[in-house]
What we know:
With 169 residues, chain A is mostly helical. The first copy, chain A, has helices at 4-28, 34-42, 49-56, 60-72, 93-114, 119-134, 140-146, and strands at residues 76-80, 87-91.
Amino acid sequence: MENGIANLLGALSLAVMDRIEQGAREVVGRGGETPAALIVIGYGQGMTNDKLRRILGLSHSGTVRLVDRLVSDRLVERRPGKDGREVALHLTASGVASRNELLASRISAVTSLLEVLSSAERKQLATLIRALLARQDTSEMDRFTICRMCDDRVCTNCPLPTNKGQHGH
Amino acid sequence: MENGIANLLGALSLAVMDRIEQGAREVVGRGGETPAALIVIGYGQGMTNDKLRRILGLSHSGTVRLVDRLVSDRLVERRPGKDGREVALHLTASGVASRNELLASRISAVTSLLEVLSSAERKQLATLIRALLARQDTSEMDRFTICRMCDDRVCTNCPLPTNKGQHGH
DNA sequence: GTAAATATGTGCGTAGCGCACATATCTGGT
DNA sequence: ACCAGATATGTGCGCTACGCACATATTTAC
């Protein structure tokens, strides 16, 4: 394989993430995995502290403190979970609003880089990225991790597989 | 413009940077902008603290402390600059070695994601990314920032322009 | 009914960074 | 030659984001 393409994708990815993270920090006033946490909790699948920890790739205590910050910012509430041990994380009204701003800011940041391409070029690029993602060997948890900033309002059919390995049943 | 492509590129960029940053942390034992600093200093254009600050997008003091860390790790040396105010940053032998490991780790991380594409698909993708980057309106400093992790051993002709705006002469 | 597993919270330390301030050198105008 | 402003670096101090080790509560399995 030729390495030029890897370097180009690395540079583009850095530029994309710089812009996304800058926008996210402006919207929620926090960095690190905090913006992603807000988005993930907003997916609303009865998120718990421990699931969040795995998706974000943080330590347990780091996740607890992250949720502490979101709670002190009045963006998230801790409610009793089904299981008596679990905590069910829910967005407040203000949390939902911040999350929507966050998603809009992210799409806008990436779009500003993409708009120099023609409509046909963007279609080509979309097809290639979709293929690239679809052929990765990702577990369900990997998928949540990669998609932890994704906009569920525009990403209807995610190309990522959820069945890593797929050896037998 | 359709937003699906922006979301896809955002997700891919996140996956790419996750892998690059994880590898970088394993190689140099440090996170944040420290790996990028090591690469930038290695370009060897008589790097100073202040130029580095602008490229990395950090505060002045943050940059001084970052260099302190690199010096205490024996990867960088502070030498007197041409101008009596400036400090000339130079990699030590061990710094050069770490930088090479860092670059190799980055290329390897991105390549592992790309190798599911056919050779023809990779060529298409390279062409599209090259076009996307070439048409951005970037200043020379923007270029250094975007390329702060780039592998100068494989990136021969960078597509990024260096003449932002280009109003008048 | 007790041991192991699961889920959360806490004390404590560290890395990475910014703000405000201090210091040293260079530049330009008189 | 001199002095004000610009330029470049270093420092005191605090904060955010995070991990490790430990403590606690609940559930599951034998």
